[in-house]
Amino acid sequence: MRYHRYVKGDTVTRTGTRTEQKERTRRTLLATGRRLFATRGYAGVGVAEIVRESGVTKGALYHHFSGGKTDLFRAVLEDVHREVAGRVAAAAEAEGDPWARLKAGCAAFVAAGADPEVQRIMLIDGPAVLGWNEWRALDEAAAFQHLTEALSALVADGTIPAQPVAPLARLLSGAMNEAALWLAQSAPADLAGTQAALSRLLDALRA
Amino acid sequence: MRYHRYVKGDTVTRTGTRTEQKERTRRTLLATGRRLFATRGYAGVGVAEIVRESGVTKGALYHHFSGGKTDLFRAVLEDVHREVAGRVAAAAEAEGDPWARLKAGCAAFVAAGADPEVQRIMLIDGPAVLGWNEWRALDEAAAFQHLTEALSALVADGTIPAQPVAPLARLLSGAMNEAALWLAQSAPADLAGTQAALSRLLDALRA
DNA sequence: GCAGTTCACATACCGACGGTATGCGAGGGT
DNA sequence: ACCCTCGCATACCGTCGGTATGTGAACTGC
């Protein structure tokens, strides 16, 4: 029941069954990678540093993420995407009518994206590291889907004039991405102004 | 009046004065870098390949761009930004009234961004390589400025309700960036739909 | 038109980094 | 109690970005 790591110099002792330990190592790598990627960017951090701060070696990293640094980043990005999507969904579902849901979801997205940690990973390095196609696929499965659904509902009930929702959703998604990027590196005073501008933009969509 | 390059094996002969030759080398490096960065991305191309295809060595590259690969990319990105800004300005100035200028400029930007070469460099790798702050500064000096001026004019003449133009410009800029990204990797049929959605979004801004 | 200087490169070399092949030893099934 | 599994550790390699130094043609002043 004890996991004894094979180490040359000293002997590191770890606890738990093998699957527990595996999961713990994986989570540690994900957490360390996320922290480092967020603070210094994908290109600015090496795998040596990631494994060092995780208390493991490169062997462990490549065992869990066969694609190496890129695979680890992908996993981190997926986590971030899920987290943001969760926040957006929670904010939206707290509201009753479709219009309020849309505005709450958009505000939540901008607020979430304003987190610098989310930012650098999701909006800056994500497309560059994985390529825009793969990044888009991840986004599609996360927050973007909520946006499309909300817009569809609003078109269905006549709040927004009939039109294809897909291109509109892309435009709004891009607008909010940019808003989040701006907020992360400006005075917090701009948050109100940006949210207000977004709110006006959304209001303008109503017939 | 002849420039004789010092080479071990064979002897490459070049023509022109020293400043002419310098400028030619610089332009060649810029052109090669732009082509390679556009097709395979910043991380996907090495300096060895750039200088090989340029017919020079690393010494030349580091002589012209002391910051190395990053500096070359920055210079390429500035070129691309200038080019896009030029296209946008030309399209806008061809129109008479401010509203038509805005719409023409936006359409031109989306069309320009749809060029995959512009795309990868300006919208994907740009922020990741140089950092968002520096990227933003370049964009600010280029196409983004035209957008802000156009919006200011429309607010001044009452076409658009009075409001701070800066955050609105950022939202629209982000929307158009995303639109361009989408267009570059989708069927050309989507261009019409996206342009239509953007047009509707802009129309919605009018009081 | 010649001597000395400049400078636009070429060459050689280095450290760092991402990736891989292999070894090991504690779980865990039988 | 045995052996196989597998989650790592260790050692090693190729590549790549960057740098220090050399070189000779283009310029400068006399």
The largest inter-chain interface, given as chain pair and residues per side, is: A-B, 41 and 41 residues
Biggest sheet: strand arrangement of chain A: 1-2
Outline type of chain A: elongated
Report the total helices of chain A: 10
Mean pLDDT of chain A: 91
Strand content of chain A: under 5%
Distance between the termini of chain A: 66 Å
Question: Which blocks of ≥5 consecutive residues of chain A have pLDDT under 50?
Answer: 1-11
Q: What summary fits the major beta sheet of chain A?
A: 2 strands, antiparallel
Oligomer: homodimer
Order of helices and strands of chain A: EEHHHHHHHHHH
Radius of gyration of chain A: 21 Å
Structural class of chain A: mainly alpha
The total strand number of chain A stands at 2
Helix content of chain A: over 70%
Commentary on this structure:
The structure is a homodimer of 207-residue chains. Chain A is mainly α. Chain A has ten helices and two strands. Chain A has a two-stranded antiparallel sheet with strand order 1-2. Chain A is elongated. The N terminus of chain A is likely disordered. Chains A and B meet through helix 6, helix 7, helix 9 and helix 10 of A and helix 6, helix 7, helix 9 and helix 10 of B. Chain A binds a DNA duplex (30 and 30 nucleotides) through strand 1, helix 1 and helix 3.
